[in-house]
Every structure is written in C-alpha cells, then in structure tokens.
Write a structure and sequence with these properties.
Blueprint lengths: L7 H11 L20 E3 L2 E7 L48 E4 L16 E10 L7 E6 L5 E6 L2 E7 L5 E4 L7 E10 L24 E6 L3 E9 L7 E8 L6 E6 L4 E6 L5 E6 L14 E8 L2 E8 L3 E4 L2 E4 L2 E2 L2 E2 L2 E2 L14 H13 L4 E4 L6 H10 L2 E5 L11 H18 L5 E8 L5 H17 L4 E7 L1 E3 L2 E6 L11 E4 L16 E3 L6 E5 L18 H15 L5 E4 L7 E2 L12 E2 L12 H16 L3
Parallel strand pairs: 21-32, 22-23, 23-24, 24-25, 25-26, 26-29, 28-30, 29-31, 31-32
Antiparallel strand pairs: 1-10, 2-3, 2-4, 4-9, 5-8, 5-10, 6-7, 6-9, 11-12, 12-15, 13-14, 13-16, 16-17, 18-19, 19-20, 27-28, 33-34
Helix pairs in contact: 2-3, 4-5, 6-7
The protein binds alpha-D-glucopyranuronic acid.
Alpha-D-glucopyranuronic acid binds next to loops.
C-alpha cells in the first residue's frame, strides 16, 4: 500500500464527504498481501441490471449521479433502494433482477450478453460481524474488465481502471455489522485512450471476471513482502516486509524453517523491515525441479505463510541464464480463456491447471501469458508445476501514445502486475508491449514503462513482442531493428512467415538480420487450422498446412544466431470478433494447437517432438 500524502484536494474531498458530497476517491490501491489473509468470499450469484444507456450512472441531463449532493433515489442504482411505501417511485429493483455468477465474464453466461459492450450493474448483499477494536476491513477484487465503480451501502468507494489486475478498497469506516449492500458498476466499453485500445484480436469479455473477497486485518498488518535470491553461488536470500499502519520499531519475524532460517527485524519509519538469509542447503527452483519452501511472516497478531521458489535469471550476451546455466525456452502462448465448459475467461483453478498441463504435455518449460496479466492462480500454478512465465501488460497495437492519462493507466497496470506477482519464481520476463508500431512517441511511452519496471523489480528481465520487417528490395531478408530493443534484455518478436507473409516454403529461403548482442526469442508464429479439416500441405485452413508450417518455421528459427526459444501462437483456439470466416473461424482465431473443443491438431505433435529433442540436448 502506498502511503498517500493527503493533498489540499484530499482535505477538501474529506470536508465535502462530511456534507454528503461523494468525492471520486483516488484509484483503488493494490495491497498484495491481502490475497494471503483469511477472507469472506463474495463469489457466487450476484443480482445484475444491464444498463446500456447508463441511466443508473447519469441522470437525464447526463450529470454523473454519484457527484450529486443528493442523488435521485428513484433512479440511482447504487443506492439499492426499495419503495418506502406503495406510492414511492423506485424504477429498479435488484432483488427481483436476474443473476450472474461471479467470478465470470458476462458474455458466456447469457446469450443476450454475448457481444455486449457497455455498463452492467452487480449487487451483492452480505452479512458481516462487527469489526473488533482496531480491526480493518477491505474489499478485494481479483479483476474487473474494464472499469469498475464500487459502492458500499450507498456510498461511493472509488473507481478502478484496467481489466486484468487486482484492486482493493478499505471499508473500515463503511462496513456495517449485519447486512451490507455492495454495488459495482462494470463498464467494458473499448476506447481509443484505453489500455488496450479499441482494436484487439481477442474477445472483450466484460464483468467481475475474478473473485471478490471481504478481507479483515489487524490494525497493523502485513501488506506486502518480497524475497529474492541474490546469487545462485552464495545462495543469499534478501527481502523486506511492509507493515501497513506501522512506523518505526515494529517487530517482524520471517522464517524459512526447512532451511533453519529465522530472523526478527524491526520496521523503519516507513513500516518496512529488511532482512537477509544465507541458507546452506537451498535447492534452487527450476522447471525440472520446482522446489518451493514455506515462508512464514509474522507481525503482532498477523501471521501469513506462502510457498516460494528461489532462482536467479540474467542474460550473458546472447544467452539467458537460469541459476547460472543457459536455458532454452520451450514455450507456448496462452490466452486466459478456457475452451470447454461454456468457454470464456478462466474463472477457476481447475481451468487454469488444465491449460498449464496441456503446455506440460507439449514439453514446455515456458509459457507466454498473453496479452495481459492472467489470474493469480495461473502464476501460482506455474510455480508449482515448473513453468517459466512471460507476463505482459495489454499495451497492444495502436495505443494512444501521446496521451498522458493513457501512459499513467499502462504504468498503473504494470505496477499492479509486478506488485502482485513479484514473489513468483516462475516469472522471468516482464513484457511491456505487443506489436506496437515504431514511432518516437511510442518509444518514449515504452521507455517510461521500462523505467517503471526496472525501478519496481531489478531481479527479472524485460522484453516486448516486437515485429520483423522485410528488407527493402530483399523480401527474403527479415530484419528485426527497433529502438525498443535497446530498452529490453531479450529481443523478442512475432513473425508469421508462411502465414501472413508467403507460404511455408518461404521459410527455407529466409535469412535474418538481428543486430543485437542479446538473446533472441520468437514470441509468436503460427497459422489457423480448423481441427478435422484435412487436405494437402498447401491447402490453407487444414491441419496439414499448419503442421507443415510448424515444421518449416522451426527449421528456419533453428538457424537464427542467439535463438533462445519460442512461444508459438497459440495453445488453444480462442474467440475473436475479427475472425469471421464461415465454417472455419466462426468467431474463433484458429491458430490453436488444440481446438475449441479441446481436440489436439497435428501440429501439436510436431511441436511436442521438437521440444522433446530440444530438452534432450540441454540435459546436463
Ligand atoms: C498477432 C497478435 C495476436 C494475434 C495474432 C494473429 O501477432 O499478437 O494477438 O492473435 O497475431 O494474427 O492471430
């Protein structure tokens, strides 16, 4: 939790609030370690109102209702009002409205919401015991796509923007002992100045897509912590723990009992306690041996535990070193979408696990979680299963580079992603962008994000999915030359030779110019195949075409100097409104190695065989 200095505006807001003004409070905070605290799940059936004209948010003069001194009871949904008598006009009623399941996108829960892009109101009633003296209460949202305005018992808590990272509102002063009404307006409309912007190649799933929890914590509680391995030789572990509500001198105990490590350290004036360990018998985390240790943290009455792996990652010239050893990344791209059980956003651990088990079946040691931070189950499961991770923010295609608010939005989403997952051993790469057009404004925007990421986390590598271009006058010479490559540690690019650029036979003719002394990672390649459609290798949309494309592409990539791995596009077919070819796409991007019915295509086995050979090569 960032301790905010209360500005003059803040005091003004507080006074206004005293007189019933509801001031749009600041962006919700992300308090990473609330996830580890005990909480009351608010998942399940929520009452909903679909509000395409946003009449619950704006009055008939298009004034925002929650900025009014006395919002109109009859039409202001977040008041969750009932008629006081048989004459009162209340033109909504959550109690008799339909329901939707939370967590979950709305698109796959009701046919009339399949293409819906707009505002939808959620309402959840819940009971709460009275807070003990000094106890604090929070509402934690795993994510809401895309904008969430949150109200508790008719009072505005604030707004969060960004569809894929957690956010939290403190409700200590607003929670009632007994019945409470939680109302959330979610708006998934796309916008030019949003992140992502108007144009993407994935479905705009809206809603409370991840879990919602009521969290309680003592007055001083563990808000955030970091542990990292300084060196695979010395095995020194450093770390810090941030205690919310604390200043100088609080005792914090940190222990890794399996390693015989325990320390009690004191917080500094900012409530941060630093520590270091030098265990002797530490087993390093790796995909082959995803060894984790239970770490316990305690401060006063607050006690937390979690399993953490310890490893190092860095580059050396054109190599990526994991625990000091060169590693080849046998990857695959994954969208946070599950093909079966109705489809839509991954909304439980079982679906997350199945996607990662399919990746393991491919022989992967790496997954690119495209194109946005996936839910925290995915990264915790990757820790458990032994899969390295590329984590990415949705700075995708034609972002509004000149817009300061857009930069702040992207920076906020990157910060939340790093703060949420900073202790996940599996994550080795933070990705800043995907296929963004080169311009001065874009590179300035991304250099700002690179500085933010480096400032927040110096223990991981930076990358971004760049693009290749054909050399002018030499169509068979592919060049990767991008000012962004100077800002990152790993030069990654998407290339579709044989699909968007010629046919698969072109792969054998292509040479590459990649003028950087950095590791080279191919973050996408692939082609569509409708599972079960067969023909010869030149017939587009067949499994045979895709199979041949994989064979020829892999042979081409193997010739690239500094080639350290790839993550073909993509594990599973996924929904996209851009993909409209009848009988073949039908609203799906068909580049999956597994179909939207969960059936493996022929190319799945080409990649699995290739990775099997690669794994055998790097066996010590
Ligand atoms: C792009 C993009 C993906 C997209 C893919 C495709 O590289 O990164 O999001 O789905 O190509 O065209 O299928």
């Amino acid at each position: 939790m960032k301790m905010k200095m209360v500005s003059a505006a803040g005091w003004c807001g507080a006074l206004l609030a005293l007189f019933g003004f509801t001031v749009a409070s600041s962006r919700a905070e992300n308090v990473p370690d609330l996830y580890l605290h005990e909480g009351q799940s608010l998942d399940g059936e929520w009452r909903v109102i679909v509000d395409p004209y946003e009449s619950g948010f704006y009055d008939y003069r298009y004034a925002q209702r929650d900025k009014s001194v006395s919002p109109n009871r009859s039409e202001t949904f977040y008041l969750d009002a009932q008629p006081a008598d048989k004459s009162e006009r209340i033109e909504y009623d959550f109690d008799t409205s339909p329901t939707l399941r939370v967590p979950g996108d709305w698109n796959t829960q009701a046919p009339e919401l399949f293409y819906y892009e707009g505002t939808l109101w959620y309402r959840r009633l819940f009971e709460s015991a009275a807070l003990a003296a000094g106890e604090r209460a929070f509402l934690r949202f795993g994510a809401a796509n895309y904008r969430a305005d949150v109200y508790l018992n008719g009072q505005r808590l604030g707004t969060h923007i960004g569809g894929f990272t957690p956010f939290t509102f403190e409700i200590t002063q607003r929670l009632k002992a007994g019945a409470n009404s939680l109302v959330v307006r979610v708006d998934n409309k796309r916008a030019k100045d949003a992140v992502p912007t108007l144009n993407t190649d994935w479905w705009n799933y809206g809603g409370l897509t991840r879990s919602v929890k009521l969290m309680r914590a003592p007055g001083k509680f563990i808000a955030e912590h970091r542990l990292w391995l300084e060196s695979e030789e010395t095995k020194n572990i450093s770390g810090w723990v941030k205690i919310a509500g604390a200043g100088q001198g609080e005792d914090v105990e940190v222990a890794i009992r399996e390693l015989g490590q325990k320390a009690t350290v004191k917080t500094d004036a900012d409530g941060v306690a630093k520590f270091s360990f030098s265990p002797k018998a530490l087993q390093l985390w790796s995909p082959e041996q995803p060894r984790r240790y239970e770490v316990t943290l305690a401060c006063g009455e607050d006690k937390l535990r979690e399993s953490l792996g310890f490893r190092t990652v860095r580059t050396r010239g054109k190599e990526i070193l994991l625990n000091g050893q060169p590693v080849f990344l046998r990857g695959i791209c994954i969208h946070e979408e599950f093909p079966l059980d109705g489809g839509g956003r991954v909304n439980n651990t079982e679906k997350a696990r199945q996607l990662l088990l399919w990746a393991k079946e491919l022989g992967c040691n790496f997954v690119r979680l495209a194109h946005y931070p996936h839910n925290e189950d995915m990264t915790r499961l990757a820790d458990e299963l032994g899969l390295l991770v590329w984590s990415e923010v949705p700075v995708y295609w034609t972002i509004d580079w000149e817009n300061e608010a857009t930069f702040k939005n992207a920076q906020s989403q990157l910060t939340d992603a790093i703060e949420r997952d900073a202790n996940r051993a599996c994550i080795i790469i933070w990705s800043l962008a995907n296929e963004t057009p080169v311009s001065e404004a874009r590179t300035k925007f991304l250099s700002g994000l690179a500085a933010t990421a480096r400032q927040l986390d110096s223990t991981r590598l930076l990358s971004a999915a760049m693009e290749k271009h054909s050399k002018p006058g030499a169509p068979n010479v592919n060049v990767v030359k991008d000012p962004l490559a100077d800002l990152v540690d790993v030069v990654a690019f998407n290339q579709y030779t044989g699909w968007y650029d010629g046919l698969p036979d072109k792969c054998a003719k292509v040479t590459w110019e990649i003028p950087y002394d950095k590791p080279v990672f191919v973050s996408e390649f692939g082609g569509d195949a409708r599972q079960g459609r067969h023909g010869d290798r030149l017939e587009r949309w067949t499994e045979e075409f895709q199979e041949d494309l994989y064979r020829q592409t892999l042979a081409m990539l193997d010739k690239i100097d500094g080639f350290v791995g790839c993550s073909p596009w993509i594990l599973v077919d996924f929904r996209s409104p851009k993909r409209v070819l009848p009988g073949i796409q039908d609203g799906f991007n068909r580049k999956g190695l597994i179909s939207s019915d969960g059936v493996k295509k022929k190319a799945f086995y080409v990649l699995r065989d290739y990775y099997g050979k690669r794994a055998a090569q790097t066996k010590p």
